Amino acid sequence: EAKDADVDRWVKGTCRFCGTGCGVYVGVKNDKVVAIKGNPEAKTNFGFLCVKGFLAYKVMYHPDRLKYPMIRQSDGKFKRVSWDEALNYVTEKFKYFHQKYGKDSVAYYGSGQALTEETYTFNKLWKAGFRSNMVEGNPRLCMASAVAGYITTYGSDEPIGSYSDIEHAKCFFIVGSNTSEAHPIIFRRIMRRKMSNPDVKVIVCEPRKTNTSKIADLWLPVDPGTDLAVFHCIAREIIKNGWHDKQFIDEHTRITDGEKVYDFNHYVQFLEQFTPEAVEKITRCPAENIKKAAEWFAKHGPTMSLWCMGLNQRTRGVWANNLVHNLHLITGQIGYPGAEPFSLTGQPNACGGVRETGALCHLLPGTKPVADPKWRAHCEKEWGVPEGTIDPKPGFHTVKMFESLGAENDTTKPIKAMLVCTTNPAQSLPNAHKYIKNMKDAFLVVLDIFPTRTTQLADVILPAAFIYEKGGVFGCSERRSQHTDKAVNPPGEAKPDIWIAAQIAKRMGLEKLIPWNMDDPQKANALAWADYTRVTKDTDHSFAGVSYDRLKNEKAGVQWPCPYPDHPGTVRRYVRGLDPMFEHKGFLEKFGKVIPADKKIYFYMDAKNEGRANIFLRPYKPAAENPDQEYPFFLTTGRVIEHWHTSTMTMRIPEISRAQPYSFVEIHPEDAKKYGITNGDMVEVASRRGKVVLPAVITQKSLPGILFIPMHDQHIDRMINFVCNDAVDPGSFEPEYKVAAVKIRKVSGP
Ligand code: SF4
After folding, report:
1. What is the 57 CA–ligand 1 centroid distance (Å)?
2. According to the model, what pLDDT value does residue 641 have?
3. CB under 8 Å to 328, separation ≥6 — which residues?
4. Ligand 1 atom closest to Cα of residue 644
5. pLDDT digits (tens, 9 = 90+) for 294-312
6. ∠ CA 140-146-147, rounded to 5°
7. Cβ-contact 531, 361 below 8 angstroms
8. Atom of ligand 1 nearest to the CA of 51
9. What are phi and psi of 419, to 5 degrees?
């Protein structure tokens, strides 16, 4: 770690990678970032960092950095142009498409890696300026099921408590999350909690015995996509043994299938089909393990559930989320320290930037639906645009958006152009072949810091600034927004996204709507933040008490809701008397919410729910695609600790690329023997959509019949999203990356 003497100054910031939101200090010497260290005052990480956060600065000075705007020429090659030339070209094309094909012919596809101020600006420009809801972002691919899970259960998105619940929990229920590799600093906190208190139990429910499972007291192995049955079975065991909290259920919940309301006995009868023995047959999870998990969940609490993509990236992701919430609601383990259903996030600003600013096709700022006429009218008034400006109809969700993208002369493709900001859909979309063609055919503008699989398809490339070259706000998984100060200038002519958004607005005649067209990104960011927090001040996501100056000065950021300037932010929601929104004048009336007069906990549900959370009756449904004779294996995908997402950044950090240079396929020894495969053999893994060729790693981590492949590799022969399924959850429209049926074939020996 760099010492003070090694740098000229340390600049406060946030890690660029996962959604943990680790606080950092960025070390600058001779106007160059030369080191990163953990911020000991940050409440997310207390000074600790994983390898990615520690080495992130090496990304900034890689020779591949995009430094100049470029336009593709008729010979297919890119030519360096000025910003004026690039932006004029882009906006003339946008105007042309708008005029000829209508307002929805130009789409925006953003990212949980852009700043809150930037995403808010693009969202406002599209929805109020272009009057189009063709706004999506990569959080649709990772968090949409969690959003729908929270909203359908409690009436409000995002976790109830905070990471600090880790230090209070006595039982951890980790499902669909390899926390040790995807969120190493959160895992460190769990490990410390367990080491400091031998009585703490850890249950892990996962198809693989991951590094996370190594500290588990109990592993619930399941076939991919089958865990819904396990959750119902745990609920059944809890109720059968009388471990449920009857008073909490009576006072604070209602039982529903999403349509009708039922009594508790109906729920008990519904659960009867999920006996441990029946569920063992569906899932391969031993009945005894499920019974033990039920006992620990209910009796060894407070219990903290943590989950991530293993639950979300499924065609029944929303239901899986609902069923984990059910376990907390039937045991009343909610709203006090350590009792917490906590969904982890993959990107540094998926929560703050996309969920909270409503930068998805069906949302407006404050995570309120575009279909809500009151909220549309509110946004129109705040944004100073005429009544009826915002389209009440949602745009297309991500998969549909890329399906609908194509060449101008293709009458089946209504979207003709797209602006892609800080993300790499040509690699990250499932069934990628299909969408790569559409991106190639359409007019594609890509803003990024590096060449990627997506910039290869672009008509225009716009070079972007890295977070430490512009500064701004990231909001992490625990509702905490933190400000990063600008440390150095971007290389070449690279620019902050907010400048690019404002320049597009100006050229489209919408300067009045985005009045922060200025060279200083920090001034522009401050104006965008003020605009955003004013629009959302009366919502459950309120940051009205957090001026930009306050956020800059806070050492560890602020957690929403924070509706007053002297409010410290909210560590835990749904605690009567502690939730600031109870006292916020006008909030309850404005959104038709009620607090049951004599109740301890209030959920943000509509009046018809009487402030009660929903316990859902969700039928068991397997994944969209399951093994059969032709494709006899389950494939599941995930992360390794070294890499992040499509590895466009981490693969350019030498220490990391040396440690993990390429992907692999994990195969159980029994399966390997059947196919004559040994360690290191090259194996073709094929689904109905595509194939990859990877070296085999023979391991007992998964059950026989299940293969695992990391998701990061960019190489054209190893890009796993050629194989993954693009079937989506009907409630969240999130694709099923986590389950596919595949076959294997040994290609060659080592
Ligand atoms: Fe960055 Fe996540 Fe690692 Fe923290 S855990 S240093 S936020 S990548």
Report:
1. 13
2. 87
3. 303, 305, 334, 339, 340, 341
4. 8
5. 999 999 989 999 999 999 9
6. 70
7. no
8. 3
9. -105, 115
Check residue 717 and give its pLDDT.
Answer: 87
213's CB contacts (< 8 A; 6+ apart) are 204, 206, 219
d(CA 425, CA 110): 10
Please give the DSSP secondary-structure letter assigned to residue 127: I
Paired with 444 in beta bridges are: 418
Which positions of the chain have pLDDT values less than 70? 1, 576-602, 604-608, 750
Taking the centre of ligand 1 as the mean of its atom positions, its distance from the CA of residue 186, in whole angstroms, is 9
The closest residue, in CA terms, to atom 2 on ligand 1 is 18
Torsion sign across C-alpha atoms 375, 377, 383, 389: positive
**What is the side-by-side strand order in the sheet with 253-256?**
261-262, 253-256, 613-616
* Closest C-alpha residue for ligand 1 atom 1: 53
Atom of ligand 1 nearest to the CA of 14: 7
What does pTM read for this prediction? 0.95
Per-residue pLDDT of 50-67, as tens digits, reads 999 999 999 999 999 999
pLDDT on residue 716: 86
CA-CA distance, 53 to 273, in Å (whole number)? 46
Q: Measured in angstroms, how far is the CA atom of residue 541 from the centroid of ligand 1?
A: 24
Residues present in the chain in total: 750
Only one residue has tokens 């709203």, namely: 335
Domains within the chain, CATH numbers bracketed: 4-60 (2.20.25.90), 70-139+349-559 (3.40.50.740), 144-343 (3.40.228.10), 633-748 (2.40.40.20)
The confidence score (pLDDT) of residue 583 equals: 54
Q: Which two tokens stand for residue 262?
A: 């039922």
Other Cβ atoms within 10 Å of 115 Cβ, number:
29
Q: What is the per-residue pLDDT for 586?
A: 53
CB atoms within 10 A of CB 451: 16
Which H or E element spans position 175? strand 171-175
- Locate 629 and state its tokens: 């004779």
Q: Tokens 């000829």 — which residue? A: 100
CA distances from 121 to 124, 419, 501, 522, 626 (A): 5, 14, 7, 14, 42
Kindly provide the b/e burial profile for residues 21-41, where b requires at least 16 CB atoms within 10 angstroms of the residue's own CB.
bbbbbbbbeeeebbbbbbbee
Residue whose CB lies within 8 A of the most ligand 1 atoms, among 43, 49, 467, for a mutation test: 49
Ligand 1 centre and the CA of 481: distance in Å? 15
Say what the pLDDT of residue 540 is. 84
SS3 readout for 327-378: HHHHCCCCCECCEEEEECCCCCCHHHHHHCCCCCCCEECCCEECCCHHHHHH
CA angle 374, 480, 399 (to 5 degrees): 60
Catalytic machinery residues:
52, 142-143, 309, 346-347
3-class DSSP state of 139: helix
pLDDT of residue 449: 96
Question: For position 749, what pLDDT does the model report?
Answer: 74
CB 12 within 8 A of CB 555: yes
Instruction: Return d(Cα 235, Cα 231) in angstroms, integer.
Output: 6
pLDDT of residue 10: 96
Which two three-digit tokens encode residue 423?
Answer: 């993300």
